[in-house]
Automatic annotation (TrEMBL), chain A:
<dbReference type="InterPro" id="IPR000089">
    <property type="entry name" value="Biotin_lipoyl"/>
</dbReference>
<dbReference type="Pfam" id="PF00364">
    <property type="entry name" value="Biotin_lipoyl"/>
</dbReference>
<protein>
    <recommendedName>
        <fullName>Lipoyl-binding domain-containing protein</fullName>
    </recommendedName>
</protein>
<keyword id="KW-0808">Transferase</keyword>
<keyword id="KW-0012">Acyltransferase</keyword>
<feature type="domain" description="Lipoyl-binding">
    <location>
        <begin position="4"/>
        <end position="79"/>
    </location>
</feature>
<dbReference type="InterPro" id="IPR050743">
    <property type="entry name" value="2-oxoacid_DH_E2_comp"/>
</dbReference>
<dbReference type="InterPro" id="IPR011053">
    <property type="entry name" value="Single_hybrid_motif"/>
</dbReference>
């Protein structure tokens, strides 16, 4: 059975309440390894690469470049076989 | 050391991927100081440390559920989830407090030592702080009174060479932090803060001095912080060569190698210690994540000794 691991926007610093999504580093439907950077966000003008929480197939959510998302938003999922 | 490293690594992993939310100032790189200090203190000896002191709390034997629980604001945390990383207290293990006010732990520790002396107790108080803290007025006031009253305090400066984004040379006109003790006629020494045995030797001697009525000691333990000031710090200000050189002196692999070379422990035994550390952290984390947030009724608890007449 496939298990879905949510990909949530992390709280990167004390002041972070929301982040600007910049880009995916991995295409939709591609395999990723746990800890591999999968997308880039900007907080307080600093760019951060965010790592995959699990190994599996990355399924992009609705995140759009330059859109702002609150910490905790589920912006993708990883299907773990 | 390995347990403190495992706690720090698991927190960074979980925060970085959005698994849970917490704010930490990573102690990765400074574990040898915490191990040396923690092992040299008696359970009832007091410890005061900072926001970066998670490793110090592990070294003093605070249960992982209480540390992780507090960092994540859960009811099973050391301060019942109301304090966070900057306000951890664990009286049963002798931890008086962590503080986010740079230098503020020093006078508190001196007060705890004064209390021990007045109570006729042979308890010693250790206080950990950074190099930057030694530039504050509270540090100098505390040093002065500890020396004047010959109090049982062990001052432990964990000199990681940076204060936020400022290198130590930009804020003090001395070569060695340890020289600051000279203004207070205080004994002390500068040790390799990446060598747990060197730290342990120095702190043990300091504790013996304090316990036997010989007054305070100042120890400068030179080390480094690998992950920057706060979690998420990209460290753009830090020269790459400086970080690379510091990582060459990473206390964890270095001590592992020393134990192997001396035959004190086998590779299998060392691996078992690492695996045990990871398992302890995972077990504690699972318990913490399943624990509830503090109850609303906690809001006005621990605020005043007597709540009578205080609007709730
Ligand atoms: C009294 C006070 N001044 C300034 C700050 C802001 N501040 C937070 S951490 C920090 C640097 C402290 O450096 P150091 O004492 O070397 O400790 P480290 O963070 O390196 O462990 C500063 C200036 C503060 N928290 N408190």
């Amino acid at each position: 059975m496939t298990q879905k691991v949510p990909v949530q926007v992390p709280k990167l610093t004390m002041a972070t309440t929301e982040v600007t999504f910049l880009e995916w580093l991995v295409e939709d439907g591609q395999p990723v390894e746990e800890e591999q950077p999968i997308y880039v966000v900007a907080t307080d003008k600093v760019e951060n690469e965010v790592a995959a929480p699990a190994s599996g197939i990355l399924r992009h959510g609705t995140a759009e470049p330059e859109e702002v998302y609150p910490v905790g938003t589920e912006i993708a999922a990883i299907e773990v076989p | 050391m390995t347990l403190a490293q495992a706690v720090d690594a698991r927190l960074r992993k979980g925060i970085g991927r959005g698994e849970f939310f917490a704010v930490i100032w990573p102690s990765r790189g400074q574990e040898a100081v915490a191990a040396g200090v923690g092992a040299a203190l008696r359970r009832d000896d007091r410890l005061v440390t900072t926001y970066r002191g998670i490793h110090d709390l592990v070294g003093k034997g605070v249960p992982l559920t209480e540390i992780l629980g507090e960092i994540m604001g859960k009811s099973i945390g050391a301060s019942r989830g109301k304090g966070g990383t900057m306000h951890i207290t664990a009286p049963e293990q002798g931890v008086a407090l962590t503080t986010g006010i740079v230098g503020a732990g020093v006078p508190v520790a001196v007060g705890l030592a004064l209390a021990a002396k007045q109570q006729g107790s042979d308890r010693v108080t250790a206080v950990c702080f950074g190099d930057g803290a030694t530039n504050t007025g509270s540090f100098h006031e505390g040093m002065n009174l500890a020396s004047t009253w010959q109090l049982p305090v062990v001052f432990v400066c964990q000199n990681n060479l940076w204060a936020e984004m400022t290198p130590i040379g930009d804020t003090m006109n001395i070569d060695q932090v340890v020289d600051r003790r000279l203004a207070y006629a205080m004994p002390g020494e500068r040790v390799d803060g990446n060598d747990p045995e060197a730290v342990h030797r120095a702190v043990t001697a300091a504790v013996e001095r304090g316990r036997s009525g010989g007054g305070p000691t100042f120890i400068e333990a030179v080390t480094f912080r690998f992950e920057g000031h706060y979690f998420g710090d990209q460290q753009k200000y830090l020269p790459a060569e400086e970080l690379a050189a510091a990582k060459e002196a990473d206390p964890i692999p270095r001590y592992r190698q020393k134990l192997l070379d001396s035959g004190a422990l086998s590779a299998d035994e060392l691996t078992a210690i690492d695996e045990d550390a990871t398992a302890q952290v995972e077990a504690a984390l699972a318990e913490v994540l399943a624990a509830p947030a503090p109850d609303l009724a906690e809001l006005d608890q621990d605020v005043f000794v007597n709540m009578e007449g205080i609007p709730s």
